[in-house]
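Colleagues,

Please find the record for the two-part complex below.
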Amino acid sequence: MNNPKKRSQWADAWRRLQKNKLAVCGLVIFTVLVLGALAAPLFLDYETDVTGINAQNRLQSPSSENWFGTDRLGRDVFARVVWGSRYSLSIGFSAAAISLLLGGTIGAIAGYYGGMIDHVFMRVMDILQAIPATLLAICIAAALDPSPRNIVIAIAVSFCPSFARVVRGPILSIREMEYVEAAKAIGAKNRTIIFSHIIPNCMGPIIVQTTLSVAIMILIVSGLSFLGLGIQPPTPEWGAMLAESRSHIRDHSYLAFFPGLAIMTTILSLNMLGDGLRDALDPRLK
Amino acid sequence: MNEHLLLEVNGLKKYFQTKRGMLHAVDDVSFTIERGKTLGIVGESGCGKSTLGRAILRLLEPTAGQVFFEGEDIAKLSKEQMRRKRKEMQIIFQDPFSSLNPRKTISETIAEPLRLNGIINDRKKRMEKVLETMEIVGLAERLINTYPHELDGGRRQRIGIARALAPGPKFIVCDEPVSALDVSIQAQILNLMKELQESLGLTYMFITHDLSVVNHFSDDIAVMYLGRIIEKASSEELFTNPLHPYTKALLSAIPVPNIHMKMERILLKGEVSSPIEPPDMCRFAVRCNHCMEKCKASEPPLTEASRGHFVSCYLNRQE
């Protein structure tokens, strides 16, 4: 079929996003970070460059040789920061994905069926939400062993309520639309109605929430690692690197500066992107 | 069971629980529709005509009553059985702006009933059928990948009709299909629906508040007031010889494009009484010019005044 004009609302949103300089800036920074994380194994060797101890070369200030300096075991901080993005980003994204899947499904079911189901599901979510997400993550991380997988579980669970809420809200209004009734009339099953008619129409808020959540999740991962509940040394996680640098903060402050800068840049870029997406996906601003 | 009957509705009720009591949206409604015919359902806003259409299709679960579709009581079917039955009974919605999913292209919308009901599983053949259906309802092929928001109301309503036609239904509930459209487009859509009825042998239940529309379209007309059918007759009979005071008032409100013709407009006093827990009296009594004592004592049953002409009013009773 040669009817070219298939221009979706996504294309419109993309065009609006491009007009937002901050969002594009965030997107570019974030893309660089992701590419860096993906490409890290190509030019860095985990055993020698990232965790290999080199005692002669310890605590060197930033130079052309070691861009971000070296830590007290003589490891190159730049290599560790770059490698560390692999942990932060992958944990942030997988936790957000699991949380979205779990919380989103709960919110979708609660919003679509309403009544008793809605009450039970959302009260459970309320109880979960009454505990601060960071605190809950700390509790779960402390109860389970500190491993990347358990951190993902801890963060994903503690973020479920906010995803459930974000998904449930729009669904409440969209399920009353006539096209949902029309879908029922042509013989669609509830599953089809929820996943093919309702959820695509409330993607905007979900995408924004996901982007912003990834930022907060990365922060929590670093926080947990800083407290020793997250990724364990010698793995180069940003929060763990910050914790290690504490004893050298007076004389070798770059050890704390660069991991901190990495955390800040990642979160800033995600927040800028998230804000831009919020504007771009909101049809009221068309 | 009469071979010619496609649909027989028997004592259909739809009540809604509200804080102030039971709201009788559709109250003990019975009628039949023959194959290939059109029944017009007329009434003002809130009289329960849309609820009636949705209760028949079980988009709203009826509170009580039977709906025989080709002799089978579909009110008794399980949800899954009903879902399989839906391809035979379709609905066209009033508002073409909210009845189409804004994220689906025209072809996706029209293909969906074919896909969901497993009517055509091959993608290519399905697209052929979509194109065929689009041609039948007068949508140009080049529009196939457009989204609803790019089209005007008339075209959108054609998509709605195509979606209803695609699974090959026998019966279509038309819920005010033209009242959201411009007058010039209304005629186009009505003509299209008439042609489709003739070529495909469709049976319609045509819900509207606009008597001038229903006159040209329906074989029979049922007038609804507060959840009840108060008068039912063939279209011609109802327009020439209305019996119920409410029907007379409705007919007098149709504008006639002739300034010399004297119009005697019957103006109704008061407002529609509450549909919540209605008392056992004529539901129209409070607004009726001919209200008698017995109208307030009990509700007049729907009785045959002349052949095929049913009315629920004590005025026309010879006693």
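Chain B touches chain A at residues 54, 57, 59, 83-84, 86-87, 90-91, 93-95, 98-103, 105, 112-113, 116-117, 127, 141-142, 144-147, 160, 163-164, 167 (CB under 8 Å).

Comments are welcome before we finalize the supplementary table.
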